[in-house]
């Protein structure tokens, strides 16, 4: 008879929830740069976002479901293009809308983590030249300050910029005439954009702390989990540093850093090694690899030092919910192991709360909650019920060695 290892208890105050992004769930974000991309020809975008999940109107139902499932935290983003649709003009109505979401989360027992930028920018900001344009840092800082009515009360965690390394990679792609998303292979980030988003992040941190020094502020990094094959350690480091580590290093003065991982990237002496033909793949064609989050946590801790870690995204796109549950079980075992080894992990937020617009397609179903795209009916999957229940038991599962 095999003894089942005792589960690992959550640390005090551990965040347990799910994440979303405004553009991917709200619908009709017509003033954003992505809305233009979605309605332009000659791109890799398969379909436009249109109504998305209609969460702009249906957010109370989304929060009701998350709370009823047992989750204690909800990460969502506010949309810059709604709040500042025209340069210098801030919408009081939109600020009030997002404040109502914050209050709605708190009323339901969900601690809100608010992301201020999740890939999309206002059309006017993009037209000025985006992050590398003159004055871009100051414009972002002004927007962050304008979000005071949303975040200055009852919000304990704020994310300034989601996956800045992907923003820099996409900027490098654009300069080379490639507009695919997600990027194919491991393209090189644009150095100018890298410097720009780091400067914007540091300016935003100052603005958030000026609003309330008690707010825990950080940003989230896309962790590719680079694995060096024998003899490829130096090659791997050369791939990893500009694409990941420089952004982790920029968080050393932050209150926390977000770890976001989904699969692994194997590197040989000549560069990236494609996954074998016979490996299990997800709907995004990524290798099914639940161990990614554990490796990402350990590497981030090694680079950033004593900054607390939060898993802000981790999940799988699949049409087989049993595989989703198995993926989460494997990933959480990795989180539990890292906690036992003394790594300072403050929370785990799954990607994603809902099936959503995955930057060009609705086919990649990451959601714990399924969406009927005709009626917008929400249906929690079995994986959601299981994952949410862990928020009630306050224990992480651990598998036998």
Key structural traits:
about 400 residues; alpha/beta; 8-stranded parallel beta barrel; 3-stranded mixed sheet; 14 helices; EC 3.2.1.21; hydrolase
Q: How does the SSE layout of this entry go?
A:
Layout: E1 8-9, E2 15-19, H1 22-25, H2 33-38, H3 55-69, E3 73-77, H4 80-83, H5 92-107, E4 111-115, H6 123-127, H7 136-146, H8 148-151, E5 157-162, H9 164-175, H10 191-211, E6 216-222, E7 226-228, H11 233-249, E8 256-261, E9 265-268, E10 271-273, H12 292-304, E11 309-314, H13 321-340, E12 345-351, E13 369-371, E14 378-380, H14 382-393, E15 395-396
Parallel strand pairs: 2-3, 2-12, 3-4, 4-5, 5-6, 6-8, 7-9, 8-11, 11-12
Antiparallel strand pairs: 1-15, 9-10, 13-14
Helix pairs in contact: 3-14, 7-10, 9-10, 9-11, 12-13, 13-14
General description of the model:
There is one protein chain. The chain is of the alpha/beta class and 401 residues long. The protein has helices at residues 22-25, 33-38, 55-69, 80-83, 92-107, 123-127, 136-146, 148-151, 164-175, 191-211, 233-249, 292-304, 321-340, 382-393; strands spanning 8-9, 15-19, 73-77, 111-115, 157-162, 216-222, 226-228, 256-261, 265-268, 271-273, 309-314, 345-351, 369-371, 378-380, 395-396. It has an eight-stranded parallel beta barrel, surrounded by eight helices. Strands 7-9-10 form a three-stranded mixed sheet, with helices on one face. The two termini are 14 Å apart. The mean pLDDT is 95.
Secondary-structure class: alpha/beta
Spell out the helices and strands N to C. Answer: EEHHHEHHEHHHEHHEEHEEEHEHEEEHE
- Largest beta sheet, briefly? 8 strands, parallel, barrel
**Beta-strand percent range:** 15-25%
Query: What is the rounded distance between the termini?
Result: 14 Å
Number of strands: 15
Helix content: 25-40%
Task: Write down the Rg.
Answer: 20 Å
- Count of helical regions: 14
Mean pLDDT: 95
Shape: globular
Strand order of the largest sheet: 2-3-4-5-6-8-11-12
Low-confidence stretches: none
Protein name: beta-glucosidase
Active site: 313 (nucleophile)
EC number: 3.2.1.21
Keywords: Glycosidase, Hydrolase
């Amino acid at each position: 008879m095999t003894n089942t290892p005792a589960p690992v208890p959550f640390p005090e105050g551990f965040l347990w929830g799910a994440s979303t992004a405004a553009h991917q769930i709200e619908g009709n974000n017509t003033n954003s740069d992505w809305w233009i991309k979605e309605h332009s020809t000659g791109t890799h975008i398969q379909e436009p976002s249109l109504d998305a999940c209609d969460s702009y109107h249906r957010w109370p139902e989304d929060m009701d479901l998350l709370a009823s499932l047992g989750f204690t935290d909800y990460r969502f983003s506010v949309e810059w293009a709604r709040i500042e649709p025209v340069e210098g003009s801030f919408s009081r109505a939109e600020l009030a809308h997002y404040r109502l979401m914050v209050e709605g989360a708190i009323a339901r027992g969900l601690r809100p983590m608010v992301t201020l930028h999740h890939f999309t920018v206002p059309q006017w900001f993009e037209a000025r030249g985006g992050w590398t344009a003159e004055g871009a840092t100051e414009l972002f800082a002004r927007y962050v300050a304008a979000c005071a009515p949303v975040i200055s009360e009852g919000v304990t965690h704020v994310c300034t910029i989601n996956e800045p390394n992907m923003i820099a990679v996409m900027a490098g792609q654009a300069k080379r005439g490639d507009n695919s998303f997600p990027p194919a292979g491991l393209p090189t980030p644009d150095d100018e954009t890298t410097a720009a988003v780091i400067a914007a992040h540091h300016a935003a941190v100052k603005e958030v702390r000026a609003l309330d020094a008690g707010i825990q502020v950080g940003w989230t990094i896309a962790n590719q989990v680079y694995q060096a094959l024998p003899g490829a350690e130096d090659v791997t480091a050369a791939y990893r540093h500009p694409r990941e580590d420089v952004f982790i290093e920029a968080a050393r003065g932050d209150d926390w850093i977000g770890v976001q991982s989904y699969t692994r990237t194997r590197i040989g002496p000549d560069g990236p090694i494609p996954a074998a033909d016979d490996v299990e793949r997800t709907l995004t064609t990524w290798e099914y690899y639940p161990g990614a989050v554990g490796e990402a946590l350990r590497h981030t801790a090694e680079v950033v030092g004593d900054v607390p870690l939060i898993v802000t995204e981790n999940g799988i796109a699949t049409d087989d919910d049993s595989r989703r549950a198995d993926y989460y079980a494997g990933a959480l075992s990795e989180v539990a192991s890292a906690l036992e080894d003394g790594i300072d992990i403050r929370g785990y937020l799954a990607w994603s709360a809902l099936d959503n617009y995955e930057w060009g397609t609705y086919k990649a179903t990451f959601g714990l909650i399924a969406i009927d795209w005709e009626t917008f009916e929400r249906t929690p999957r079995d994986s959601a019920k299981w994952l949410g229940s862990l928020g009630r038991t306050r224990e992480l599962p651990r598998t036998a060695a």
